[in-house]
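Changelog-adjacent note: as of this version, every example in the card shows the full chain rather than a window. The one below runs 268 residues end to end.
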Amino acid sequence: MTPQVFAILNVTPDSFSDGGQFSSVDEAVARGIELRQQGADIVDVGGESTRPGAERVDPAEEQERVIPVITGLVAAGVPVSVDTMNASTAFAAAEAGASVINDVSGGLADPEMYRVVAQTQRLYIAMHWRGHSTSMDDLATYDDVVIDVRNELKSRLAEMFVWGVEREQVVLDPGLGFAKNAAHNWQLLGRLDELQSLGHPLLIGASRKRFLADVLPDDATTADRDLPTAVVSAFAAQAGAWGLRVHDVPSTRAALGVVDAWKNGRSA
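Full-length structure tokens:
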């Protein structure tokens, strides 16, 4: 199965690689349509940066940023995901036509999130998370990162099912870069099968993250991380990932094309 490609569309002034690029609704909608034309299955719209050290955004301001963009994209026939930790934003986005709620906090940031997910019946991506961006680098302590992440995600699943979230609604995300150092990220990627044992599809979000700089020259830019991102996407697809969240859709599509061709060649 070819993974779903989630294209990142940040309508924020301070996201780590593309903050401020799409500050008007028209620019953001045009970019979302372009991403869809490039091969994105879903455009993931976010109005609050989660880069390390980023400050929180009031939900009302977040909604002012994302809801008009979601409305415009849905009107243009583009499938949309909302990237939010706030239950009120998730609900408003669902009302505007978003088909997926992508919550980097896995429900820990807002106690009402699971109620909204159950009520709206949207697909819900629950990421492994230990704390907000201002403090997450201090929380990267594990006995065994894969076992610990698996157990903490398992606890999230138990809680959301109590609230009425259906098992079929849930996709899990190991949270690369969130309260994790480079070694933790590579261990999670290398042992995806242990996370898949939870019985839920996995979304992988490695795109342009800091740990990819380890395989690049010291003077490489953030955009230079698109090549290792595409390689990670290919390996994640081989490992059975359900979805990939990326900035650069064409390189991801090329990588997935190689994976499909490789599989077809092996089975011919």
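Structural remarks: The chain has a mean pLDDT of 93.
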